[in-house]
Design goal:
single chain, about 280 residues, alpha/beta, eight-stranded mixed beta barrel, 9 strands, about 20% strand, binds ligand C2E, binds magnesium ion
């Protein structure tokens, strides 16, 4: 360590790491406190069906506000919770809130067919994860077709037996799976063919890139064409303008999610949004 410290560049890296470690500790404390006090919130971002002309689903997104640190991004605290294992409890709390929301707000009577829930690979690696999901859903009389599980490519790349068993069990139960952030990782075609995905969510960066470069525009168009031929539902993330919406619809993407429509909002605001449409 002493040797490394002699090098200016590394000293800088160490200083940075120290800052990062301190920040992570603070975030970790905030997450723990929010769990203890039941202060984690779940917001909902609507997903628009172009064919139906209504919001037909929504993505549940966790929100954390700390009295000292303010709003903390899930991009910052989810990786920490994954490392220290808190994601297990957090994931259950989130799913519980989502199911209670579906039940209490009688979502079945609205245009919203299902809620998409993000599930971490760490959760999928838990034995009996699928049983816990079913228990929580049954507690609130939520039907299997009212929940969709979003996972990223990296979640299952290991192909661990437990991960596969959980996925297969939930698919058999009637839950559909969405592949999240498609295009940001390996965009492995083999993977799409062998995993039971119903929905492919195009990563916001490949959407934005398509409006910046001709090459990216071409690859996006053909990706959408291919996914349509495979009869997969395609959701575009990060739709921020009417121009993006129009072009995406033109090239065959029929579900839109993004700030052009709405940011993620509280459950009360989400219901108002659904009632207003
Ligand atoms: P994700 O699952 O890909 O979620 C989409 C992210 O894009 C959300 O960020 C959403 O607010 C943001 N977004 C949606 N539309 C737009 C847009 O038009 N413009 C821009 N700039 N951003 C947009 P958020 O809520 O900060 O979540 C970040 C990531 O944290 C999520 O990415 C997901 O990987 C993770 N995450 C969030 N909630 C949960 C959760 O409940 N459980 C787990 N395991 N992970 C979660
Ligand atoms: Mg997601
Ligand atoms: Mg995503
Ligand atoms: Mg993401």
């Amino acid at each position: 360590m002493a040797k490394r410290l002699q090098k200016g560049r590394i000293t800088y890296a160490k200083d940075y790491d120290l800052g990062k470690i301190k920040q992570d500790k603070a975030f970790e404390k905030a997450v723990k406190q929010a769990l203890d006090r039941d202060e984690l919130m779940v917001y909902y971002q609507p997903i628009f069906s172009v064919e139906k002309g209504v919001y037909n689903s929504a993505e549940a997104l966790v929100r954390l506000h700390d009295e000292e640190l303010g709003w903390i991004s899930p991009e910052d605290f989810i990786p920490i919770a994954e490392r220290n294992g808190m994601i297990i409890e957090m994931g259950e709390v989130i799913l519980d809130k989502v199911c209670r929301f579906i039940h209490d707000f009688k979502l079945a009577q609205t245009t919203v067919e299902y809620i998409e829930v993000n599930i971490s690979p760490v959760q999928l690696m838990q034995q009996h994860f699928s049983d816990r999901v079913k228990q929580i859903m049954e507690k609130y009389d939520v039907r299997p077709n009212q929940i969709n599980i979003e996972i990223t490519e990296t979640a299952t790349i290991s192909m661990a037996d437990t991960v596969n068993a959980n996925i297969m069990d939930l698919v058999q139960y009637g839950i559909k799976f969405s592949l999240d952030d498609y295009g940001s990782g390996y965009a492995n075609i083999d993977y799409i063919n062998h995993m039971p995905f119903s929905i492919i969510k195009l990563d916001k960066y490949i959407i934005w890139d398509a409006f910046k470069s001709t090459k990216a525009g071409i690859t996006l168009k053909h990706t959408i064409g291919m996914l349509n031929e495979l009869e997969l539902h395609i959701v575009a993330e990060g739709v921020e303008t009417a121009e993006m919406r129009d072009h995406l619809a033109d090239i065959g993407c029929h579900f839109m999610q993004g700030w052009y429509y709405s940011k993620a909002v509280s459950d009360q605001d989400f219901i108002r949004l659904i009632e207003m449409q």
